[in-house]
Amino acid sequence: MLRYSLGETEAADLIDSAIKKALKDGFRTKDLAAYDAKEVVTTSEMGDIIANNLRK
């Protein structure tokens, strides 16, 4: 939505990078746990991880 509806490509890129880092670091929610999970976290915890990645 940020990228295509609002034209906020920079913000969208930052969020995409934060999500990719969380996944690269091995964090997965239960629905994605079969895909190379190092640690299974709740949806809330995943949101916190992504938010923390945005702050870095």
Polypeptide structure, described:
By secondary structure, the protein is mainly alpha-helical. The chain has one domain (9-55). Helices cover 52% and strands 11% of the residues. The protein has helices at 9-24, 43-55; strands spanning 27-29, 39-41. It has a two-stranded parallel ribbon with strand order 1-2. α1 (9-24) crosses α2.
- Enumerate the spans where pLDDT stays under 50 for 5 or more consecutive residues: none
> First CA to last CA: what distance?
23 Å
Q: Which term fits the overall shape?
A: elongated
Number of strands: 2
Produce the secondary structure layout.
Layout: H1 9-24, E1 27-29, E2 39-41, H2 43-55
Helix pairs in contact: 1-2
Features:
56 residues, mainly alpha, 52% helix
Concise synopsis of the structure shown:
Helices cover 52% and strands 11% of the residues. The chain has 56 residues and is mainly alpha-helical.
